[in-house]
Amino acid sequence: MRDLFSKIYRDKGPLGKWADQAEGYFVFPKLEGQISNRMKFQGREVITWSVNDYLGLANHPEVRKADEEAVKKYGSAYPMGARMMSGHTDLHEKLQDELAKFVKKEAAYVLNFGYQGILSTIDALVGKDDVIVYDVDAHACIIDGVRLHLGKRFTYKHNDLDSIELNLARAEKIAQQTGGGVLFISEGVFGMRGEQGKLKEIVELKEKYNFRLLVDDAHGFGTLGETGAGAGEEQGVQDGIDVYFATFAKSMASTGAFIAGDKEIIDYLKYNMRSQMFAKSLQMSLVEGALKRLEMIKTMPELKNKLWENVNALQGGLKERGFDIGTTTSCVTPVYLKGSIPEAMALVKDLRENYGIFCSIVVYPVIPKGLILLRMIPTSTHTMADIQETLEAFSAIREKLEKGIYKRIAKEVMKG
Question: Which fold has domain 61-299?
Fold first, then answer.
């Protein structure tokens, strides 16, 4: 019998093997200062494109005031205990009612965390006789939720309608044999590529196949749709989403999440989601803070308007300069370049050190080998000057990449 930890010493994993070169700079970086369009990284001011503060609420004066008053009133502990036992309040219910109305659903239930929440939602919705169909590019939280499932599950090619139909037919056939049902999972916005899920087409398939639809709209909530109610509203199919999920961590710049749907479904989930039944209630300061943020999203459309002004300027500018930004239909702005992991590291270091631009870097195994993805999150706090400076920097680093400068730098570093 081998030592359980032997694998840890032998194989650090696809990302962990780069820890010595990457930690503290490329991964686990330390951004300092107030959350904004410009922050500090290793003592230098950088234009920040990696913070999920879409509507600029993180340091909005009204939000800061509301958060401060809530902490003074309740502290950071109340209520203690799980909601089912001792941590339920009128304000939790008020927030749920307001969220349900906002996303046009009958009921909602507030969750402690997004990752934990969607994972637990999936676990509560399906049993061993049920079948799950989900996008191959689904977020890690969905994948981990599906891993808990004891029954069959199928992935379909990303946003591919033929593949969706093929796998729905397979799932329906198996569910007929087991006596179970089918859960279809899509994201409202895929956070890496920025594409919206094909919710309209998926909802239309309900006329042909028998399934229920769960949508993770973490990046769509607050940013898409006429009112900001998300990708379902944007595509005109909010009614066709059976369980709607969103997090407070993106547009609301806070902690927490929620699910929404028909009251009977939400009641079932709140009595059967283990991560919520046996976890401490969301603190009152966060609940009050979420109420303030939601009020601002509903009453201050200028926040979303400014966000999209910046998104269109950034994405339009990149396209004009010949950059490949894929097929994004959201605020998420990916820039695809060709190069190795060592080249990517040299490029990003140059971008941060010499051009003052901080954005996330994504490489294999998250994306195919030979590709570099620079992922940017525009916010309403960015300025046209930020965008112009970033466009010029990207043009400069692309030229260096194409000339092989980063390849030479990477070789020198490896030799040293």
Answer: Aspartate Aminotransferase; domain 2 (3.40.640)
